[in-house]
Each structure stands twice: as C-alpha cells, then as structure tokens.
Amino acid sequence: MLGEIRLIERLGAGGGGEVWRAVHPRHGLVALKLICPLGPNVEELQARLEREAELASAVQHENVLRVVEYGRAADGRTYLAMELLEGNDLEHVLTHRVRLDLPEALLIIDQVLAALEAVHAAGIVHRDLKPANVFLHVPAGGSPRVKLIDFGIARAPSSAKLTQSGAIVGTPHYLSPEQAVGAEVDARSDLWAVGILLYELLCGRTPFDEMKVSQILLALAEARRIEPLARLRPDLPRRLTSLVDRALADDPRKRPRSATALRAELARVAASARVDTDPARLGGLVAETRELAELIDLDDLDDEYAAAAAAERAEAERASLRRTRGRRHRLVPRTPLRPRPTTRDALALPSPATVQLTVLSVLATARPHPVISFGSFLGLGLVIAAAAVLLGLGAPPALIVGDPRPPAPSADAPRVTHASLGANARREDGQSKAKGPRRSVDDAR
Predict the structure, then answer these.
(1) Which of 62-76, 97-111, 317-331, 340-354 is predicted with the least confidence, judged by mean pLDDT?
(2) Cα–Cα dist 247/253, whole Å
(3) Residue in 395, 384, 378 with CA at minimum distance from that of residue 339
(4) How many domains does the chain have?
(5) What confidence tens digit (pLDDT) does each residue in 269-308 have?
(6) What's the pLDDT at 260?
(7) 152 and 25 in a common domain
C-alpha cells in the first residue's frame, strides 16, 4: 500500500525508480511511477518527476499520456499516477518487426505529430522523442491510438532549469545538431527527431546505428550529410523522401515551420500515394508483435548468441596458442647432422692424383718458353703436386667433394651385428673381472 493506493504488480524498474500497476481509490487502475528516497541522486530524480507531472498535466490531448496525480507518501516516496496503457511501445515493436510498411509508418507519425502540435502549443519542447517514448495503446473495447510519454527531460520557458547550460540532453541517435552542441532548442528540434523516427520506421535503422556516441556527436557538430532515404528505399514516393530530407536539415530554418505544417505535407503524400491510414492498423500491429514475441524468445536468442560468441573467442585463443607454440618450436633447426667439413671441403680442392695428372698433362703439351726453361716448369709442377698431397693427407675419401658416397665395405671385413656387439661386451666384462675389482683411493690407503 502507498497511502490509499494499492500496489498490484511491478511493471518495470530503472533509472532510480519503479513502475507499478496500482488501484487508485478515485481513478481506478493506474500506472504508478515511484522514486525511492534512499536511491542515488534522489533529489534530482524527484525534481524531474515533479517537472514531468507539471508539464504532462499541462497538455490535454488524446495522443499524450494523461497524468492523474502527483504527490509524496508518508514514507518519503515520491509518486506519479498516470493512466494505465495497454499495448507495446514502438521500440518493442521494432525489435520484432525491424521495419514497418508505409501505411503503418505514416499512421504512427501522423499521431505523433498530432501530439506534438498540442505539446508545442503549450510552449513545451519534448527533447527526447524516440521509439521507447511512443506507445501504441490498444484499450479494451476502444480505438487504438499512439500515446506520447515520458516528459522527464522536456523543457518549457517557465520550467526550472535542471541541467547546466551547454549540457547535452537526449538520446544520441535522435539528437538534433543543436542539441549535440548544447545550444538552445525549440520546437524544430522535435521535428528533427520525427524525421529520424520516420527514417527508422521505413529503413529499419537510424542513420547513426553503426556509430559510437562520440562519432554521432562529432558528425552532428560537423553537419555531415546523412545518407538520403531515397538511396536506401528507392521504391518510396519521391515527395516523401524529399520531405524526410527537409526534416533532417542541419539548419533549423530549413526544416518545416511546425508540426502542423509537417503533418499537413505528410497527409498530402498519403493521399497522393493512396495510403490507407486506418487507426485499426495499430491494433493489428500490436497483436502481430505479441504473436512474434510468443514464438521467439529474444532472451533465449541473446543467450545463444552470447554462448556462440564465447565459443568463437575460445577457439580463436586456442588457434593463437597453437600458432605461438609452432613459432617457438620452429626456432630449433630440425636438419640432420652432417660430418664436420675438412679444409679440402672448404677450399673445394680436387684429389692429389687429379692434381698430379693435370700438371703432367699441362707440362707434356706446353711449349718451352724462350726465357723459362723446361726445368722451371717441372719444378713448379712438383711443388704444386706436393702441396696437394700434403693438403689431402689423412682425409677420408668419403669427405672429398665430388665423391659423397661412403666407401663400400670389402668382402674380407667382418660384419658387425648385435650378437657380435654383445659377445664383445661379455668378453670385456670377463677381462675386467679377471683383473680384480676396482678400488677407490680410500681402499688403497
């Protein structure tokens, strides 16, 4: 219980408060927003709730959420009683439908603009128009309609200023360029948000979906050009895409003058395209969303996606570890051992016999020089032959370059087998026993 109000069911929580389904003694079923007095920033939250109650109650329109009562309970909790809505917000619908058909999109935007006409007429700027704050209300036995909700950061000239001058207020993907730089805003800032919302309903995404918050703010501050709607949806009427481009003009003076003007132009587009904007479509849209929500549990899908992403990361880490181990093992060369090269291998010298035959053949075919005698040639050849013999002395033939094959064993050479090796080992063991045990230095002493 909260005084005379009976709490039935908690509908949601977040942002330092809770929303309950409750029974009011005079207004029946209501939605009750509560602010806990022990939470963080409780004074700021209470001030925002009070301002929301003040501004929302100042607008009486069928497309604006109706405020029933504002007060503070005996235990210190601040509350705001509002009409209870049945249906889904537009964010929930887009989660399951991604994008809407042209008649549905024009019907929703038409009623959003109708709500903004009343809000702007009261001198209020909403400043936080987004799918989560557009509710598709389908009352039992009544006509479905769009409700504009959450005036928590709305601004009116007479309202107290709760944010610092130059502070950025709003949701990044729906901020107008003047909001992104902390400048003063007016009703045309809400029209920018309407353009973004219509862009999203028809394309399934905003122009900034793949950007971080800092990138969005920089793009808005630098007045970067948004990708035209006609390029993404060339099937849409040209008048409609041009109107969306005008609503998304960086200069507020180039946007439509008011919500009324924009709504009138959209009505002409719908008439020329023969689009049926029957409000009963909202009820069908909400019912279809509920059926999809029952068939597909998004929480389960999120768990499956998280598990799949974790498995992919684990496999990537294992692959990286295998590559690291492979690089570490490859540092050790795996080449077979080769015999140590000799001086002849390094110098690539031929065998002594080859040198001798070469020198003798040169001397035999050479003509005697008139100055150098034959004896000089013969002496030079003998010196070269002797040097070759000395360099090749004691080198095994298998290491000589040009003859890589090992020498073939002769027929008389004994064959070495495992049995012969074992016999030799036993023979040497017997000889060592015959000589007596080996004694240490201490035994000798």
Answers:
(1) 340-354
(2) 10
(3) 395
(4) 4
(5) 999 989 888 888 888 888 888 888 777 665 555 555 566 6
(6) 96
(7) no
pLDDT in tens, 109-137: 999 999 999 999 999 999 999 999 999 99
241 to 34, 113, 196, 223, 235: CA distances (angstroms): 42, 17, 12, 19, 10
Q: Is 299 designated active site?
A: no
What is the identity of the amino acid at 65? L
Rg (CA), the chain: 47
Confirm if 103 and 281 have CB atoms less than 8 A apart. yes
Find out whether 243 and 261 touch, Cβ atoms under 8 Å: no
**Same domain, yes or no, for 115 and 208?**
yes
Separation of first and last alpha carbons in the chain: 106
Catalytic residue from among 89, 101, 110, 128: 128
Residue 99, beta-bridge partner list: none
Q: Are 154 and 169 in contact (CB under 8 A)?
A: no
- In this structure, the answer to whether residues 124 and 262 fall within a common structural domain is yes
Residue 27, classed as helix, strand or coil, is: coil
Query: pLDDT at position 300, please?
Result: 55
Tally Cβ neighbours within 10 Å of residue 224.
12
Instruction: Flag whether the pTM goes above 0.85.
Output: no
Let me know: does 286 contact 88? Beta carbons within 8 Å. Answer: yes
Same domain, 162 and 304: no
CA separation for the pair 199, 215 (Å, rounded): 19
